Amino acid sequence: MSPLAELLRARRTVLLDFDGPICAVFSTITDRAVATELAAIVGTEQLPPSVRSANDPFDVLRYVADTGDSKLVAAIETRFRDLECAAVDTAEPTPGAEEVLRELFARSYRVGVVTNNSAAAADRYLRRLGLRSTVGPIVGRPGARVDLLKPSPFMLASAMRQLSAQPADALFVGDSISDVVAGHAAGVACVALANKPGKAARFADLNPEFTITSMFDLLAALNEG
């Protein structure tokens, strides 16, 4: 049995990031388009150049959160959530993700989704694909509390509480540096998904327990058990 299969056999709680391990949220509606729309709500003339030209909508959200303007923050957060929900209607599934979720469910794993995206978007996507029953709690972006987003372990800890799981019984599958940092801060084993060129090298310094290049790698390890 492979070391990854042994880890999955020993740890019965599996937490997954959403954007990456489960789907590509901004497939048709791009993250750049979302960032541009959010910037327009603020007023591009009020934004520093780095935020005005940002490709990542989280850059706009973080900037607005730092201003302390509660009404503007609420408007940005609401529109961001709505755009995410629209995006997941055409989001491309990550190859192997559906099979992994169904296999985890069939084997009675405790499964949760932990994402910096909105919980509403993750829920909508999983329902669209008929996968909502395979996942327990979805812990998403806590409003404008950008300080609680990954790499903070806050959301991972929340998911484990909802699953009545201990860190020693959990592993987290993510595709970003912030995922690995958050997972280790929460005390869980990390499986890093290096699904794009160069990612494996970037993960190396963070020492994830395992690095995979496809969700089918995780499926194969599950099927060894």
Helix and strand run: HEEHHHHEHEHEHEHEHEH
> In terms of per-residue confidence, which ranges show pLDDT below 50 for 5 or more consecutive residues?
none
Assigned CATH superfamily of the largest domain:
HAD superfamily/HAD-like
Distance between the termini: 8 Å
- Beta-strand content: 5-15%
Structural class based on helices, strands and sheet pairing = alpha/beta
Tally of separate domains: 2
**Amount of helix:** 40-55%
Mean pLDDT: 96
Would you count the extended β strands for me? 8
Which strand order do you get reading across the main beta sheet?
5-4-1-6-7-8
Main sheet summary: 6 strands, parallel
From the alpha carbons, calculate the radius of gyration and give it in angstroms: 17 Å
**For the record, what CATH class of the largest domain applies?**
Alpha Beta
Tally of helical segments: 11
The outline comes out as globular
CATH topology of the largest domain: Rossmann fold
Structure, explained:
The chain is α/β, with parallel strands linked by helices and 225 residues long. The protein folds into two domains: 3-24 and 92-224, HAD superfamily/HAD-like (Rossmann fold, 3-Layer(aba) Sandwich), CATH 3.40.50; 31-87, no CATH class. It contains eleven helices and eight strands. The strands form two sheets. Strands 5-4-1-6-7-8 form a six-stranded parallel β-sheet, with helices on both faces. It has a two-stranded antiparallel sheet with strand order 2-3. The radius of gyration is 17 Å and the shape is globular. The N and C termini lie close together (8 Å).
